[in-house]
Amino acid sequence: GGREKILAGGVESGAQLLGEQSEQDVYGTAIGVTVSNGGRQVLASGGAASNTVVGDPSFQIVSGGAAAFQTTLVGGGEQIVDGKAFGTVASQGGILEIESKGRSEAALLHALSVELISAGGIAIHTLIDSGGSEKILAGGVESGAQLLSQSEQDVFGTAVGVTVSNGGIEIVESGGTLELLAGDAVASFTISAGGKLDIGAGYALNQYDVARGVTEEILAGGTASATVVNSGATQVVDAGAVVGGTVVSGAGQQTLISGATVSGALIESGGSQVLSSGGAASNTVVGDPSFQIVSGGASAFQTTLVGGGEQIVDGNAFGTVASQGGVLEIESKGRSEAALLHALSVELISAGGIAIHTLIDSGGREKILAGGVESGAQLLSQSEQDVYGTAIGVTVSNGGIEIVESGGTLELLGGDAVASFTISTGGKLDIGAGYALNGYDVARGVTVKILAGGTTSATVIHSGGSQIVSAGGTAGGTTISKGGTEIVHGKASGGTIDGGLLEVTRGGTASGTVTFVSGGTLQLDAGASFTGAIKGFGKPALSDRIDLRGIAFTPGATTKRFVPTTTTSGTLTVSGGGHNVHLTLLGAYTTSSFKQASDGHGGTLVTDPPVAGGGAPQTTFADIAPAGPPAGAAIPIGLPSYMPGAIASHEQAHAGQTLLATGRPGGPAGGDHNPLLAVR
Fold this sequence. Notes:
By secondary structure, this protein is an all-beta fold. It is 1% helix and 47% strand. The chain has one helix and 88 strands. A hairpin with a 2-residue loop joins strand 81 (569-576) and strand 82.
């Protein structure tokens, strides 16, 4: 029960603390003290002790701010450190405890001795041999330990840098981390499920198997090669690490964080490679049913997808090769360039995703979903591109199949070579700069749009189809069937209205000859330019219409006038609201034959309707000459003799046309006479 108190500045040398309840409180300095039989040496803040020997079951307590030097622990002697301990030697069951704020340096643990490092405690360069052991609890840290024969380090916290030789045992438990550094020599170690292995700067690990539940992290400057990441295990690659040839299988995973790079990984049997933003992987091979996930900001180069291997791209993928059922998915922010799709492989481009210069052959397939875009694809033998989004510029050859589905758009550009393509109902075909489309049939529900620099010729627009000529686009010789529509914002040259609608909008121009065949409407909007001619307008029983949207219709105020310029053409002028439209019509017409009415949209509708009873205004020889002279009457000299069958008595002539009558002057014996009869 004796007690000694060494105050600050005081010194005790060679004291012995014997028996229970004996205690030495050190605020000053104690040298060479022996503590045994339950005695206790307590070093308070500012106190220091050197060369203390602590036996069983005695204690040396090193409080925060205190320091112990070269303490020896024997038997069950114990050192509890919340301050600093230097050069402690423990043997024969000695115990060294490093508390939350404690620090131990250069301790030596011999047979049966133990070092316990609690959360917040730190031990540096501990030497463990001959059956000694160190236990690093969660939150505790050991740096630079050496494990010799039959020694053991159990890591629940963190061990940084270790040398294991001569039968030393290194075990990382669940929650623990072992970090290997340059110069470390580790004959063997065990990482339990839930444990973590860090490969630090300067350390190179080759052919390591990462077991289920274990995480291996390659830190900056660390190197790992030919690692096998087993099912349920994880390899994490940091920026600045060097990693190559990793094999990931089962449910294993390789994860690249920002700035990390890897090459030559094999992902198989359900494994995955995850590239975080800033990460990059090259020459990865992904088998069935495994994944490479390329996150936004990450990049994958020359990935190979085989079997059902899948690449999911929200970042960037370059030169992916897919075959034998490989799947390439381009997500909302993903971008793929120069992918190659072989037999049975598929590329799916989601809304917001972009693919450029994909080459598809031998049964490969690309599906562009709504909102997705492919630019510059090439389709070879038996390949297919299904477009629900947008395909810009495509080459189709050797049996390749191009199908634009409802809602999809195919834009053809200069240089594209397209052997064939199909635009489904609801699909759209854009003719881009430099491309010339000839003789295309626009089916029901399909829209053809001619963009600036694009050209079409001899297009046939069927019922329900439409063609839009954008500013800078050109269409020539279009045929518009009943129910079809052509809208011209750019240029149109010639064409046939076969029951459909040709609309020229403000800023649009139409030239050449527009021919009416079987009804339909030519609509000229305000500001439209029409410099061509109109042919075939006003046939009997047909609904030919000219809709002048720029001429306001007012009964009695809107005027019309037709002036023949030749016997087969003339100019129709329609005036109203201070505006005039001059139209060249091919054919013979009279002003009175044209009718005007409101088009229901503020403009004027012009027609040339048939007369009552059907048929256009017409004149026949029956209107001019009797069917024949009265019986026995003389035929005047100089007039055509009437001979049944010699003069066609029912030849028809429209207004402005001329009939030719032939016969013999003075009767059958006279010569031919060919007077011209103008019908007005």
